[in-house]
Amino acid sequence: MRQELLTWFAREGLLLQSVTANPEDPEHDEIKVTVRAPIVALGRGREDFRECPDPVRFGYPESCLELMTLEDLHWFILRWFEGAVAAGRARCFVCNKVLDNGPEQPWDAVFVSADWHCWLVVHFDCKRYLGRDLKGRNPFEVELREPELFDLRLTEREDQ
């Protein structure tokens, strides 16, 4: 992750920290501090967690973070999830079904800020079970992969 994005997350108060010590060896009272930026989840599986996509990798100017608000980043992540859904890569975090853009099972991107800083996708009808499915999970225990590069260009709607 680029240092500028990590600094932006710190400025917004979105970095999580984990502090651990080795109590079994008092002579080496080493303390380990781990910092984690917000993550995105394409589903609930171990292989579904990604580093937060960096807007610069998607064509935003290098200076975009200087002006970007958290609301702007939410919009960017939503567009990234739309690309993931269009590519058939996103699954509901609760029911684990592949998401699509059809009208029968609408979905939403959710930013979880209690205990985690994580964006994920979930069907509207599954949202009420989200807390149950997050319980017992630890953001420091998931292995992160690089985010996919989906096409985020805005296109005109055909019906206009």
Describe this structure in words.
The longest helix is centred in the middle third of the chain and has 17 residues, at 70-86. This protein has a domain at 38-134. The chain has helices spanning 3-11, 64-67, 70-86, 130-134; strands spanning 16-21, 31-36, 39-41, 49-51, 107-112, 118-123. Helix content is 22%, strand content 19%. A four-stranded mixed sheet has the order 4-3-6-5, with helices on one face. By secondary structure, the chain is of the alpha+beta class. The protein contains four helices and six strands; from the N terminus they run H-E-E-E-E-H-H-E-E-H. A hairpin with a 7-residue loop joins strand 3 (39-41) and strand 4 (49-51). Mean pLDDT is 86; it is low at 155-160.
CA(first)-CA(last) distance: 39 Å
Low-confidence spans: 155-160
Mean pLDDT across all amino acids? 86
Number of strands: 6
Task: Draw up the topology in text.
Blueprint: H1 3-11, E1 16-21, E2 31-36, E3 39-41, E4 49-51, H2 64-67, H3 70-86, E5 107-112, E6 118-123, H4 130-134
Parallel strand pairs: 3-6
Antiparallel strand pairs: 1-2, 3-4, 5-6
